[in-house]
Amino acid sequence: MAIDPVAFTIPWLNVTVYWYGIFVVSGILAAAWITSLEVKRRGGKPEHVWDGLTYAMIGGIIGARLWYVANDILGGNPRYLEQPLRIINIKEGGLHFYGGILFGALAVYWYARQQGVDMWLIADSTAPSLLIGQAIARPANYINQELYGPPMDLPWGIRIDQYHRIPPWTDLSRYPVETTYFHPTFAYEMIWNFLAGGALLWIARRYEEKLKPGTILAGWFVLAGIGRVIIETWRPDQPRIPGTAISWTRLVSALMALLGTLWLLVRYDVIHLPSVTLGPERYYLPATDEADEVDEAEESQETDA
Questions:
Q1: Does the residue 168 lie in any domain?
Q2: Residue 149 pLDDT > 90
Q3: Which DSSP symbol is given to 16?
Q4: Cis, peptide link before residue 168, omega less than 30° from 0
Q5: Which of 43, 111, 231, 297 would suit a FRET pair with 6, their CA atoms being 20 to 30 Å apart?
Q6: What is the CA radius of gyration of the chain?
Q7: 10 Å Cβ neighbour count for 286?
Q8: 47 part of a folded domain
Q9: Residue 219 maps to a domain
Q10: Number of structural domains found in the chain
Q11: Residue 303 has pLDDT above 50, yes or no
Q12: Around Cβ 285, how many Cβ atoms within 10 Å?
């Protein structure tokens, strides 16, 4: 049964709140909370996470939209070239997670440089939460009846009404609404992301003393990339590279997985590349206020002596 995408309205403010927004914001807040815990565990200041969240959200929204538009154009759809003003019409839908990550990361990098925060620490702390936050937001796709795969006969298939279908499943004589069920692709990705994010959190704690900065981030590249390469099997809505059956997203995901794997192999000296460094040996942690007070107290005692 279809769920109304409108969660509630506030008539006197003329405000409509959608379930999509609720799930997405919940995912963002959960990701920020997990990141703040990870930053604190590594010796950083969690307040930097919350202060930088605004920059990340602004950059993320812009990047998610631009990536979606570019992906659509590369796939051969000319609508945004013919009507450029549609690019800023986010209400019609169209955000891509990878663009949000890229531009959000650039915004956070700028913030971190301004505040003197170690970007490696932020990146490793954020990587697992990105997967978990995305998973929390995925039920919004069910409500919007999007990100589904081809028809299936398995028990967990979902119905998609005629207004949310893409060709060739718009032919109701061949694919009746009452008896046609589709792969819940968003659910597959949600499950993968929870497992992958949980695995990265476990690894970060289990091998805390052995991991070098950048390891968890590289792990995100590997797991997020592999997961999306698999999920793209059931994503017929994704624009394809012209003349092929491969989507642009699958290509980028495969490159991500390869980059992450190479990163780990070089980082731990399995592969030796001359003059290539992929991060420091430990995080940069500025002296805390408490540490400063201890140092001043010790200096005072030495002076008195």
A1: no
A2: yes
A3: E
A4: yes
A5: 231
A6: 23
A7: 13
A8: yes
A9: yes
A10: 1
A11: no
A12: 14
